[in-house]
Amino acid sequence: MFAPHHQASTGSSCTQDPCKGNPHTFPASGELSKKDLSLLTDIFMKNTPGEDNPSEEVATCGDFGLARVEMHCLSPSTPISFKVINIVAAYLSDSDSESWYLPSFFGDIARLYKGPSEVRGWVASAINTCQLKRFHRRLQQCSKIFIPLHDHMSDHWYLLVMNLDERTAEILDSKPDVHLDDRRMVHAREAILLLQTVFSNEMTRSTDVYFHFPSFNVNISELNPRHNRNAESGIYVIRHMQYHGHNWSTQFDSIDHRNLIALEIAKHPRNHVIHPIEAPASRTRTSANRTATYTGNANAAFNADMALNGRKCRSHRLRRSRA
């Protein structure tokens, strides 16, 4: 499923660790430790008789979770699932942060607006599905809002970033297209309208800072790094959320980033199932013929329009009060 290669590093550098914000440089796959390589093998290629369970959860954070089969979208040249993007957004969300990371469901719900008569249900759906109560009365402390958006017709991800201090918005799109930009801009403005509607009650007091999000100047960033494959767009969205404003994409190597994102997800300190995953990965591997090349179904993990039915994932910890 993953494809380590053992040349010198061609990975790109960045200035922050996605988990802790510390200085960090991406290693090439050949620089990964044996333990990390074993963990990748265990996640992507587990085939011990009686132990292969594709629905086994490999990561959970709050109400968001990721099953083993859903990690398969991180195999080479495979489109990224919304569940991978959402677990990364959940990891990045911090109650003390000035940056907010919304799940992809927000953009999906934004498309559903049908008129003033349905605003209440529209807003309630966004608040409940995207867990927006965690931001109650915190808008004044927010400086940026990251909203991953999915163009379902072309299976392409792009990122809307609301810069509250500058009262601007930018669209980071790794593969802009003059024939599709208008459609993607419309979707971005739908998300901005939903944002305004959801948070309008947060801007009613005399001490509140008032924002009118629909009046923000929205631009498709010309400085955004580009890639000619839609399948890589989800990787770009993840890295933009983690390293916004930093030059992370120099000499972009897809396999390196996919391997590292898989490791970041499995080993993240906020992952409630990190220990059950790492324990079997530490076993000694005896098969010299077990190659690290994915040959399975590339469509095993796919992008659904929405995931409102059924649980996103059970919570493995007590919730703190969000009042």
TrEMBL record:
<dbReference type="InterPro" id="IPR003653">
    <property type="entry name" value="Peptidase_C48_C"/>
</dbReference>
<protein>
    <recommendedName>
        <fullName>Ubiquitin-like protease family profile domain-containing protein</fullName>
    </recommendedName>
</protein>
<feature type="compositionally biased region" description="Polar residues">
    <location>
        <begin position="7"/>
        <end position="16"/>
    </location>
</feature>
<dbReference type="GO" id="GO:0008234">
    <property type="term" value="F:cysteine-type peptidase activity"/>
</dbReference>
<feature type="region of interest" description="Disordered">
    <location>
        <begin position="1"/>
        <end position="31"/>
    </location>
</feature>
<keyword id="KW-0645">Protease</keyword>
<keyword id="KW-0378">Hydrolase</keyword>
<dbReference type="InterPro" id="IPR038765">
    <property type="entry name" value="Papain-like_cys_pep_sf"/>
</dbReference>
<comment type="similarity">
    <text>Belongs to the peptidase C48 family.</text>
</comment>
<feature type="domain" description="Ubiquitin-like protease family profile">
    <location>
        <begin position="64"/>
        <end position="244"/>
    </location>
</feature>
<dbReference type="GO" id="GO:0006508">
    <property type="term" value="P:proteolysis"/>
</dbReference>
<dbReference type="Pfam" id="PF02902">
    <property type="entry name" value="Peptidase_C48"/>
</dbReference>
